[in-house]
Design brief:
Layout lengths: L1 H14 L3 H5 L1 E7 L4 E3 L4 E9 L4 E9 L12 E8 L4 E8 L7 E7 L2 E7 L3 E3 L4 E7 L2 H7 L8 E6 L16 E5 L11
Parallel strand pairs: 2-9, 10-11, 10-12
Antiparallel strand pairs: 1-3, 3-6, 4-5, 4-7, 7-8
Length: 191
C-alpha cells in the first residue's frame, strides 16, 4: 500500500504545471543599454509582467548573485509590486546598484511564491571603454555615430523612449548620450 501512495505522489509531482503557469503570470526581461553596462554602475532592468487570464498580484525582485565564497558581502535586492487585472500587463523598471559587477537575477513572485526566475546575461564594460547611447530616428545619423573612435574602444547602444531611463543615476553607465533627429515629444518630462 505504501508503494502505491509513493507512485501516486510521484505522478502528481510530474504532472503538476510549472510554477509560472500555476501562478497565471509570465515574465519578459530586457536589461537597459542592450545589456552593456559600465563596471560598478547601477543596473536597470525593464520587466514586463503579464497575467495569463486571472487577476494577479505580487512583486518583481531583482538581486545580485555573488560568486561562491563571497556570499558574506552585502548584496542589494530591490522589489517592485504589481497588481494586474485579468489578461493585463505592466512594464516596470527595476534598478539596483552593482558595485562588484556580479550576475543579476530577476524573480517573479505571485501570491508570495516564486513563479519564475531568470539570470541576465550582461556585458560589463571596463571604465576606459566609451559607452555611447544614441537616441535617433535617422539611420544616417546612427551610421555616422557608429564611426566613433577613441581610446581602447567605443560601444554604441541604440536607445528609444521606452528604453531610456529617467534618472541621472541610472544613466551612469553612459559616457555620452547623443540625440540626433529625434522627436522629443515622445520623451517623458523626467526623461
Amino acid at each position: 500500500m505504501r508503494t502505491g501512495w509513493l507512485w501516486v505522489a510521484l505522478l502528481v509531482l510530474l504532472t503538476a504545471p510549472p510554477a509560472a503557469a500555476a501562478a497565471g503570470v509570465s515574465l519578459a526581461v530586457e536589461p537597459a543599454f542592450q545589456g552593456y553596462l559600465k563596471e560598478g554602475e547601477w543596473v536597470t532592468v525593464w520587466v514586463e509582467v503579464r497575467s495569463e487570464g486571472e487577476a494577479a498580484a505580487g512583486e518583481v525582485a531583482v538581486r545580485t548573485a555573488p560568486p561562491p565564497g563571497m556570499e558574506h558581502l552585502p548584496r542589494p535586492e530591490y522589489a517592485v509590486p504589481y497588481d494586474l487585472p485579468p489578461g493585463g500587463s505592466v512594464r516596470l523598471a527595476v534598478a539596483l546598484p552593482n558595485e562588484y559587477s556580479w550576475p543579476v537575477t530577476v524573480g517573479l513572485y505571485a501570491d508570495g511564491q516564486l513563479a519564475e526566475q531568470r539570470t541576465l546575461s550582461l556585458s560589463w564594460e571596463p571604465r576606459h571603454v566609451l559607452l555611447a547611447g544614441v537616441l535617433s530616428d535617422d539611420e544616417a545619423a546612427l551610421a555616422a555615430l557608429s564611426g566613433l573612435r577613441g581610446g581602447d574602444g567605443v560601444r554604441l547602444v541604440r536607445l528609444s523612449a521606452e528604453t531610456l531611463p529617467d534618472s541621472p543615476t541610472l544613466l551612469g553607465s553612459l559616457d555620452l548620450l547623443a540625440i540626433a533627429r529625434y522627436d522629443a515629444d515622445r520623451l517623458t518630462d523626467r526623461q
